[in-house]
C-alpha cells in the first residue's frame, strides 16, 4: 500500500545551479542550504562531487552544518564518481549517493557510445558499489521518458535488485505530458514487483521545456511517486526544473485531490524564494505562481472590488499562507473607486462620495499617462483637487 507522505528532494544546489547565471560559491550554497532546512525539505542535493573541487567542498561543508535533511551528491555510474561522492558525504548525518545513467537509445548511442547490455551491467555494478558505501542510494535512468519502455523496465529491475532504495525516473528534456508521465510510473511499478516488495520509493524529476514540469510532477504523485525532485523558483537546466513552491502549494490547496502530506513549511516559501533571488541576483518573473511579485496583486476594478468584499473571490490561498506580507491592490488605469477609496483610507484620508468622484477622474487621467501610481501621486492628486474645489490659485511652483 502506498503511504501518503511525499518526500521533497531539493536540487536547487545541483540541477538549479546548472542554470546559466546561477552558479553559487560554497558560502552561498551554505546560506541556501540553511534556508532549505528551515523550509522543511527532506533531502538536499548539494552538488555533483566529481564535477569540480568547488562542488566537492560545498557538499562536504553542507554535510557538517546541516543535520536535519539528508544530503545527496550526484554521481555518474562510474567507480571514481561514486567513490568521490562517498568521500564528500563522509561526515553527513544521513547521506545519499545519487547515481544516474542514460537509458534512452539516443543517449546511449550518441552520448555514451555504449550498447544496451553494457548499460545494464553498469547500472547493476554502480548501484552495488554505491550500496557498499551508503545505505541510501538513488538510481536515475536518465531520459526515461524517451526510452524504450521494456528497456527502462529492465534497467529499473536491475537497479532495484542491486539495492537502489529510490528509483527516480527523470523527464530529462521536458518532453512528457501529465497523462504519459503518470502512466509510466504505474507501468513500471506494476512490472517491477520488487519495488513494492522492498519498499523502494519512486521519484519524479521534471524539466520545464514545455511548461509542464509541475503538472507532470503532480501526475507522478497521483500515480504513486512519493518523492518529488524540484528547485526553488524552478531554476535549472534550460527552461528549468519543477518549481518546489508550486508543487507544495498545489498539494496543499488541492489537498482534496491529492490527499498527501509533506514536511514543507508553506509560510517559508516566499522567504526562501527571496533568499535565492538575492544569492543569484535575479528574481522570478513577476507573474510567477506563488512567489512572483504579482502572485497576490490585483489591478482591475472588478477584481479589486471583489477582493475587498471577500478575498476568496479572486485568491485561492492567502498571501500569509506562503509567507507573503499581504495582498497588493495595485492602482492603475483598470482600478475602480473601491480600491482608490481603500488606499486613500489606508493613507488616512476619508473622502465623501462626491470628493472621491472628483479625485477618481483625475486619478484615471493620471493612470493613463503613468505606469506606476505611488502614494505620493495620490496625495498630490488629493491636494490639487481640494485646492481647485476651493478655487484657490495654483502657485507657480505646482
Ligand atoms: O534531468 C535529469 O535527468 C537529471 C538527472 C541527473 C537526474 O538531472
Ligand atoms: Zn535534471
Describe the model.
With 398 residues, this protein is α/β, with parallel strands linked by helices. The protein folds into 2 domains: 7-280, Alpha-Beta Barrel (TIM Barrel), CATH 3.20.20; 297-397, no CATH class. The chain is 46% helix and 13% strand. It is built from 16 helices and 10 strands. The chain has an 8-stranded parallel beta barrel, surrounded by 8 helices. The chain has a two-stranded parallel ribbon with strand order 9-10. Helix 1 links the parallel strand 1 and strand 2. Helix 2 packs parallel to helix 3 and helix 5 (116-133) runs parallel beside helix 6. The chain is elongated and about 85 Å long. The chain starts with 6 loop residues before the first strand and ends in a 9-residue tail after the last helix. The model is unreliable at 392-398 (pLDDT under 50). Zinc ion binds at residues 15, 170, 172, 205, 207, 237.
Give the tags.
single chain; 398 residues; alpha/beta; TIM Barrel; 8-stranded parallel barrel; two-stranded parallel ribbon; 16 helices; disordered C terminus; binds 3-methyl-2-oxobutanoic acid; binds zinc ion
Write the topology of this structure.
Layout: E1 7-10, H1 26-39, E2 43-47, H2 53-65, E3 70-76, H3 79-88, E4 95-102, H4 105-112, H5 116-133, E5 137-142, H6 149-161, E6 166-171, H7 178-191, H8 193-197, E7 201-206, H9 213-222, E8 227-230, H10 244-253, H11 255-258, H12 269-280, E9 297-298, H13 301-309, E10 328-329, H14 337-346, H15 353-369, H16 375-389
Parallel strand pairs: 1-2, 1-8, 2-3, 3-4, 4-5, 5-6, 6-7, 7-8, 9-10
The structure holds 3-methyl-2-oxobutanoic acid (KIV) and zinc ion.
Residues 15, 74, 100, 140, 142, 170, 172, 205, 207 line the site of 3-methyl-2-oxobutanoic acid.
Amino acid at each position: 500500500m502506498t503511504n501518503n507522505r511525499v518526500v521533497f528532494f531539493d536540487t536547487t544546489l545541483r540541477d538549479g545551479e546548472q542554470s546559466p547565471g546561477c552558479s553559487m560559491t560554497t558560502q552561498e550554497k551554505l546560506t541556501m542550504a540553511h534556508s532549505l532546512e528551515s523550509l522543511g525539505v527532506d533531502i538536499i542535493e548539494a552538488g555533483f562531487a566529481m564535477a569540480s573541487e568547488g562542488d566537492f567542498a560545498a557538499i562536504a561543508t553542507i554535510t557538517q552544518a546541516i543535520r536535519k535533511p539528508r544530503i545527496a551528491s550526484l554521481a555518474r555510474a562510474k567507480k571514481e564518481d561514486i567513490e568521490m561522492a562517498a568521500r564528500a558525504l563522509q561526515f553527513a548525518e544521513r547521506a545519499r549517493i545519487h547515481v544516474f545513467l542514460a537509458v534512452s537509445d539516443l543517449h546511449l548511442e550518441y552520448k555514451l557510445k555504449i550498447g544496451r547490455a553494457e548499460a545494464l551491467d553498469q547500472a547493476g555494478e554502480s548501484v552495488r558499489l554505491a550500496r557498499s558505501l551508503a545505505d541510501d542510494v538513488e538510481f536515475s535512468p536518465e531520459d526515461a521518458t524517451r526510452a524504450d519502455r521494456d528497456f527502462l523496465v529492465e534497467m529499473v529491475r536491475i537497479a532495484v535488485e542491486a539495492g537502489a532504495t529510490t528509483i527516480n525516473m527523470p523527464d530529462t528534456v521536458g518532453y512528457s505530458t501529465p497523462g504519459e508521465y503518470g502512466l509510466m510510473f504505474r507501468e513500471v511499478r506494476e512490472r517491477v514487483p520488487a519495488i513494492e516488495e522492498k519498499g523502494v520509493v519512486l521519484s519524479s524529476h521534471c524539466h520545464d521545456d514545455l511548461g509542464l514540469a509541475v503538472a507532470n510532477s503532480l501526475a507522478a504523485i497521483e500515480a504513486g511517486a512519493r518523492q518529488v525532485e524540484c528547485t526553488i523558483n524552478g531554476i535549472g537546466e534550460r527552461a528549468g526544473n519543477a518549481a518546489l513552491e508550486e508543487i507544495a502549494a498545489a498539494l496543499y490547496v488541492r489537498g482534496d485531490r491529492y490527499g498527501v502530506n509533506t514536511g514543507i513549511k508553506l509560510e517559508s516559501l516566499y522567504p526562501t524564494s527571496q533568499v535565492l533571488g538575492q544569492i543569484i541576483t535575479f528574481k522570478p518573473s513577476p507573474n510567477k505562481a506563488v512567489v512572483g511579485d504579482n502572485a497576490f496583486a490585483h489591478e482591475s476594478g472588478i477584481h479589486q472590488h471583489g477582493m475587498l468584499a471577500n478575498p476568496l473571490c479572486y485568491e485561492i490561498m492567502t498571501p500569509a499562507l506562503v509567507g507573503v506580507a499581504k495582498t497588493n491592490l495595485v492602482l492603475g488605469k483598470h482600478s475602480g473607486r473601491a480600491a482608490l477609496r481603500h488606499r486613500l483610507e489606508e493613507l488616512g484620508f476619508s473622502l465623501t462620495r462626491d470628493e472621491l468622484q472628483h479625485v477618481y477622474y483625475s486619478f484615471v487621467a493620471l493612470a493613463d499617462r503613468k505606469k506606476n501610481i505611488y502614494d505620493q501621486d495620490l496625495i498630490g492628486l488629493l491636494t490639487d483637487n481640494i485646492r481647485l474645489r476651493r478655487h484657490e490659485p495654483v502657485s507657480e511652483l505646482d
